[in-house]
Amino acid sequence: MTDIRRTLYDKIWDDHVVDTYADGTCLLYVDRQMLYGGTSHQSFQGLQDRGLQVRHPRRMIAVEDHMVPTRHREREAVVANPPPHLQQLVDDCGANAIPYIPLDDLRQGIVHVMGPEQGVTLPGTVTVCADSHTSTHGAFGALAFGIGTSEQQHVLATQTLTQRKAKNLRVRLNGIPAEGFSAKDLALAVISRFGANLGVGHAIEFAGEAVRALSMEGRMTLCNMGVEAGGRASLVAPDAVTLAWLEGRPLAPGGALWQAAVDYWLTLPSDPGAVFDRDLALDITGMAPMVTWGTSPDEAVAIDELVPDPRDAATPQQAASWQRSLDYMGLEPGAPLAGIAVQRVFIGSCTNSRIEDLRAAAQVVQGRKVAPGVGAMVVPGSGLVRAQAEREGLAEIFVAAGFEWRMPGCSMCFGSQNDSVAPLERCASTSNRNFENRQGDRARTHLLSPAMAAAAAVTGRLVDFRDLLA
Questions:
Q1: Domain 167-238+264-283 sits in which CATH superfamily?
Q2: Which end of the chain has the lower number of beta carbons within 10 A, N or C?
Q3: Which whole number is the average pLDDT over 386-414?
């Protein structure tokens, strides 16, 4: 008798297979595609060159985020006379009847913040975008992943995508987190423990009591960082937390359709006894907040630990990699991580720019000032987040402390629109990648949580934020 116990990933995959080819590759139906500037025009141009049309414009949504100015946007001027790279997306969406959220719309923001806010992201759907951090949307129990320009064009034309099914990987996160141990710390703990290649060839399902205890914002942060563990897609099973977040969202089902959707969504969690190709566990009890020391997200330790020594590496290859990272970062092995001076602080990105993140940072900042010699900024993930932060008085706290309070966009996450870290400057960043030159030429990036970034801003160094709140 065939065992039909399936994982969350299996269920979504099976429900979306249109056809299976002789080599095992599948044609997969795509429910939603999110678009932003950059490479989108190449896809639209490809359609035009081939005489094709967008198959389902209403299953698309577009917003500009990567290349928008966040400091001196001068919104009216940008809207009235947008630069060519912004106008192109407006024109392409207009020509193809694709819903577009303009810069002067309160909903405008980072695509991976805007999408969930609007209810674009729903459990059990296949959702794609030409950005690797589309894994964020897996927090809702969706199969969400980044695609390339040619794949984007294929979805525009056919609402399908040719894919080979990944293997199943479950990471169970158990234990009671210490006070102040956030979703970002959880993600860095997983990546540092299991490595940046953990999820290669796999869809990662995050499970366990520590995951169930997370808010939706926290689950999005965890799944966002799943791609940094090598998993193209990350998922968390939908539950009551998911439903509470989604109910009433503009593009979520309403009325009688809501209950029908809920009934389906609650069938999605992995069946008891479902077999995973790999099954790992990590107890997070008592862990301290995490900070990266190197140039890969897996090069991270707790704030109360020391910078690793290449002589302690597991392999010669790892030792060489660690040494390269230490040289780039200007750090000495065996030095305390706490106390390292920073010159820049960035609170933002699709990883940590939601209202929960800003609240955590503001709690640390309140009543304090940005340390002399430190440039600090907060870039909300969307206009809705920004407006809510202003209503709650969070923006006032940041501005009074000396932070720049910006408009929504990707900003310093990847050195966009001149929001970059100067050569050899050290930045405490809530973003997702600390690669060489990611935030600017020879920029040195330490990834950490919003509360830890806020503590770095007001002290001028890497510290355990809990010491400031004690």
A1: Aconitase, Domain 2 (3.40.1060.10)
A2: N
A3: 97
